[in-house]
Amino acid sequence: MTIGFRIPGAAGKKPLAELAQWAADNGFGAIDIGRPDEQAVEAVGKAGLEVGTFDLGGTGQLLSPDAEARQAAAQRIGEQAKRAQDQGLTRAFGVLLPPNGGQSRGQSFLNWREGWPAASEALAGAGVAFCLEGWPGGGPNYPALGVTPETVRAMLAVDAEKGAGALKLNYDPSHLARIGVDPLRFLSEFGAHVRHAHGKDTAFDASRLYETGNLGASLPGDVPGSAAKNQPGFGEGWWRYCIPGDGVVNWAQVAAGLSQYGFDGVISVELEDARYNGSWEGEQQGLRRSRAHLGQFWG
């Protein structure tokens, strides 16, 4: 398996060729990119790295109640898949957020069930797997689809019955831990479908959890005693994302579980930790620390 990273904010301002060389010099073997762009793929390859994933655009429209919007989304996805095929890329990354953030997850599933088969055919025809990440989306509705075992199970069944097998998973244990789903049990059920992984962790604050429960702060920040004051970034007070090893995820067991299912792809550090993000200096430190921790279990 290879350790790579998804490009964080400050790092994204650097020329990709320069960033890729830094990655190679610091023991990384892959970088996730945005569009399946020829120049980006070339810059990564010249540094001796592989592309972990590319970002697949337009996926949210597959959840639209409008049949024409779903059809257009499938066509756009097919065009991206063809460009990726031309670049030798095989793993696309994305989340499924409905255009209307107030749409229920149940309705999103029903809409997606109609739109996905055409997209799956296009992706599979180009040899591209769609690695779905289970980020819940923003509050208060957390509308993303494919976040829980209930929905992942149903979606994989749809792809097997009506699609072409292009639906795969990005395994990110930080999201599972955050919403109360056991990451290791999830891996034991869905490990065979994992084609990409994220190296990110979740930490919980027991004091804040006592104040707000898992509902988060209720009072405006200017009200005395509000739990909304001084909340860390990349979190909701009672939880926050952090680098691997600083949270609750057992990475030794994650590595063993992925190996059990024959995973030999890329685990990409997704740096979302308020202690490191925001400057290139901080992001270098966060990426190096993440690489060091994951390197105990992956080469």
Please provide a written account of the structure.
It is a single chain. By secondary structure, the protein is of the alpha/beta class. The chain folds into two domains: 2-200 and 243-294, TIM Barrel (Alpha-Beta Barrel), CATH 3.20.20; 204-239, no CATH class. The chain contains ten helices and ten strands. The chain has an eight-stranded parallel barrel with strand order 1-2-3-4-5-6-7-10, surrounded by five helices. Strands 8-9 form a two-stranded antiparallel ribbon. The longest helix is centred in the middle third of the chain and has 21 residues, at 105-125. It is globular. The model has no long low-confidence stretch (mean pLDDT 97).
Brief descriptors of the model:
299 residues; TIM Barrel
Number of domains: 2
CATH architect. name of the largest domain: Alpha-Beta Barrel
Number of helices: 10
Biggest β-sheet description: 8 strands, parallel, barrel
Radius of gyration: 19 Å
Supply the CATH superfamily name of the largest domain: Divalent-metal-dependent TIM barrel enzymes
Please mark out the parts with pLDDT under 50 across 5 or more consecutive residues, or reply none. none
Query: From N to C, what is the helix and strand string?
Result: EHEHEHEHEHEHHEEHEHEH
CATH classification, class level of the largest domain: Alpha Beta
Shape category:
globular
Calculate the mean pLDDT score and round it: 97
Query: Into which percentage range does the β-strand content fall?
Result: 15-25%
The secondary structure category is alpha/beta
Strands across the major sheet, in which order? Answer: 1-2-3-4-5-6-7-10
What share of the residues lie within helices? 40-55%
Span of the ends, CA to CA:
7 Å
CATH topology of the largest domain: TIM Barrel
Number of strands: 10
